[in-house]
Amino acid sequence: QQQVKQSPQSLIVQKGGISIINCAYENTAFDYFPWYQQFPGKGPALLIAIRPDVSEKKEGRFTISFNKSAKQFSLHIMDSQPGDSATYFCAASKTGTASKLTFGTGTRLQVTL
Amino acid sequence: DAEITQSPRHKITETGRQVTLACHQTWNHNNMFWYRQDLGHGLRLIHYSYGVHDTNKGEVSDGYSVSRSNTEDLPLTLESAASSQTSVYFCASSEKHEQFFGPGTRLTVL
Q: Using CB atoms, which residue from B42, B45, B104 is nearest to A89?
């Protein structure tokens, strides 16, 4: 049973465009929603995270939008750059589980010139 | 600087052999995790530990074991390697919510 569903599997965006990756979760007990970024040959690294008490969080060109009623959250990358080309994973966890994360299946983003 | 390391980075083994992948962190984190990464499946949790002598099964634990004798290390053992265990393995550690990942071990089982 996949508790966090992520789409699309892959995405090609032109430089300067907006990249959007979507995730949906099933477990209403989840209360922490991070996005991880992974470059080829490297381990994932935390990019940005949100809690359900806010509907949006922005850090530079990266924004998480959160819709608690729909149980969905998304990552928007504004002004996408070739250096953003990577695999992005959404994840979710709940308080009291000592940061045990459930990951989505990943989105491979390619930003073209 | 604190870090998390994995060794070996690449390993080729034969079906039926026992294999141990090492994970070492200098963050002094209590929580440690092992994941496998496969195309189309993302990161799947194999085992995790919340402290010394504590271990727990994740969603894909069959055929794997871990032990935690100190804070810094969580070795992952494949008791009898199978071709289905060919994958990239990542170790991670955390104190609160953010997990810090190692560079990964690419394991091929022939």
A: B42
Q: Are A99 and B31 in contact (CB under 8 A)?
A: yes
Q: Would you place residue A100 in the very low, low, confident or very high pLDDT band (cuts 50, 70, 90)?
A: confident
pLDDT at B61 over 60: yes
Contact B103/A42, CB-based, under 8 Å?
Answer: yes
Chain A interface includes B90 (CB < 8 A): yes
Cβ within 8 Å of residue A20, ≥6 positions away: A74, A75, A76, A77
Nearest alpha carbon to residue B105 among B16, B17, B19: B19
Residues B99, A46: C-beta atoms closer than 8 Å: yes
Beta strands in chain B (DSSP E): 4-7, 10-13, 19-25, 31-38, 42-51, 54-57, 64-66, 76-78, 87-94, 100-101, 105-109
pLDDT of residue A94: 86
Q: Do B43 and A103 touch (CB under 8 A)?
A: yes
Contact A30, A92 (CB under 8 A): yes
Q: Chain B within 8 Å of A99 (Cβ-Cβ)?
A: yes
Q: Which helix (H) or strand (E) holds B69?
A: none
